[in-house]
Amino acid sequence: MLLFLSHTYQVTMSSLVTDPADLEKMRTACQTAAAILDYLTPHVQPGVTTGELDKLCMDYIAQHDIKSATVGYAPPGYTPFPASICTSVNHVICHGIPGDKVLKHGDIMNIDVTIIQDGWFGDTSRMFYIGEPSILARRLTETTFECMWLGIDQVRPGATLGDVGHAIQKHAEKQGFSVVREYCGHGVGRKFHQDPQVLHYGKPGTGVRLEPGMIFTIEPMINAGRKEIRTLADGWTVVTRDHSLSAQWEHAVLVTDTGYEVLTVSEGMPRPPAFIAGA
Ligand code: MF3
Ligand code: CO
Ligand code: CO
């Protein structure tokens, strides 16, 4: 989501999810979002259009007892988003609108899906290769995946969001890549976008201190070139200003008493990198 500057955030009891029945509903919504990405995966092929992938997701949603969180979604200053997924191809950073674009061999694409199930929001995204990616596209995609997991691995009570952002930024920049600043992760639960804002850069020990029951996304957007962005005339599509490739992965995580629980899990999700304990 878009980062708001001059922003204050007080952790309130009501923003913490600790009721076991609520948590179970949130798990279910998050797992459904992940299952939709599993469902779309075999359809992501050269020759397929991004609009066809959206149609598949729309049909899946219609056949299950869920709603799209993105169809008609219109934050202040935006026109309603028209689709059930965001499809962000190559130099598109995020919020790509599905349409007639035909996927071709060598493209990389993020698919981001958010659904509402029983009043709870499930939000997750993954990268996809269309055919064989270039060496750079693969390195960017894999590094961004590692960035997301390094951020997740910081999550525990007493850690701060600055620890999360720092872990992500350090790894991205070590590879010569840059972190998008204008968009961030977000609290999620009974609402789509809520506090806290989860920046993908920062300084250790700064920012919001984590407590059990917080739920937020970690969704780094990493550019192969410079960090600057541009928004297209459609009002949604965000691209790299220098037209370099961009990648993004997104999970929703719960802060537990001892660490974290990744909520947006599914059979088909890519496994965590080997450096994650217990992976
Ligand atoms: N799912 C995106 C996120 O991770 C938000 C997409 S809003 C849309 O926050 F309207 F562009 F779909
Ligand atoms: Co999100
Ligand atoms: Co998302």
Give an overview in words.
With 279 residues, this protein is an alpha+beta fold. The chain has one domain (3-262): Alpha-Beta Complex (Creatine Amidinohydrolase), CATH 3.90.230.10. Helix content is 24%, strand content 23%. The protein is built from four helices and 15 strands. The strands form five sheets. Strands 1, 2, 4 and 5 form a four-stranded antiparallel beta sheet that branches. The chain has a three-stranded antiparallel beta sheet with strand order 3-12-11, with no helix packed on it. A three-stranded antiparallel beta sheet has the order 6-10-13, covered by helices on one side. The longest helix is centred in the N-terminal third of the chain and has 21 residues, at 20-40. The mean pLDDT is 96. Residues 112, 114, 123, 125, 250 line the site of one cobalt (II) ion (CO).
Summarize the structure.
This protein is an alpha+beta fold and 279 residues long. Helices cover 24% and strands 23% of the residues.
Shape: globular
Query: What fold name stands as the CATH topology?
Result: Creatine Amidinohydrolase
What's the Cα radius of gyration?
17 Å
Quickly name the level 1 CATH class. Answer: Alpha Beta
Q: What's the helix-strand series?
A: HHEEEEEHHEEEEEEEEEE
Distance between the termini: 29 Å
> Hetero groups bound?
2-amino-4-trifluoromethylsulfanyl-butyric acid, cobalt (II) ion
Corresponding CATH superfamily:
Creatinase/methionine aminopeptidase superfamily
